[in-house]
Every structure is written in structure tokens, then in C-alpha cells.
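Dear colleague,

Thank you for sharing your sequence with our group. We've completed the structure prediction you requested, and as agreed, I am returning the results in plain text so they can be pasted directly into your records. Please verify that the sequence below matches your submission; if there's any discrepancy, let me know and we will rerun it promptly.
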Amino acid sequence: MACPELLGGFSTPREPAEIIGGTGEDVLNGTAKIVTASGEDVTELYMEGAAKTLAYAKEINASAVILKENSPSCGSGFIYNGTFSGKKITGSGVTAALLKQAGYRVISENELNDIL
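Please find the predicted C-alpha cells below.
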């Protein structure tokens, strides 16, 4: 088990953050960023966590990865819309997007009952 946000250098608890200007794919492409509720740009920490998670998945020869839905890092089907209003949009967080690009099957915790 690993948490991309902790791997990126965050502590627990941490301030809420959301993707501003798109989805995880957009963050990877450099056209969106991840910002905390107080306005701090934390994109680099999320990118570092995503890269370390991908390296870990490769190291353990993972065939699938289970991630926490709605997170700017781990959301695999939905993320918050970047307004800190609790509204969600269809899309992936930055770690989920990176893992999908690398060919991993990314599963949300909500899908576990469907595959077991």
C-alpha cells in the first residue's frame, strides 16, 4: 500500500487541494495545476507523488492499482471541479492519469465489489 500524496511529500492531515483548469491529464500536459484551498500551488508535489507511485507499481509488478475516488491525485473517474464547492466532474487525478497512460488498470475503491 502507498499513498501518492504522502510519497510526494505531504503530511496527514493536509489542506484540501483541487485541480484548477482541467483534469489530471491536463496537469501532466502542463495546462492545469493543483492548488490548495488557501491558494498554494502544490502541483510539483502531486507530480512527484504520481511519479513515485508509478515507479512503485513497476517495482512490484502490479497489474492493477486501486485508488481513492475524487482525489486530485487518485480520482479515477471523478474529481472535484476546482472551485472548492464540493461539485465533481468526470476525470482522473494526476496519479490515476499517469498510471493509465502507462497501461495500468486503475480501479476506484467504489468498484471493488463489482470485481470481487
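Summary note from our side: Strands lie at 17-20, 33-36, 64-67, 78-80, 88-90, 105-108.

Kind regards,
the structure core
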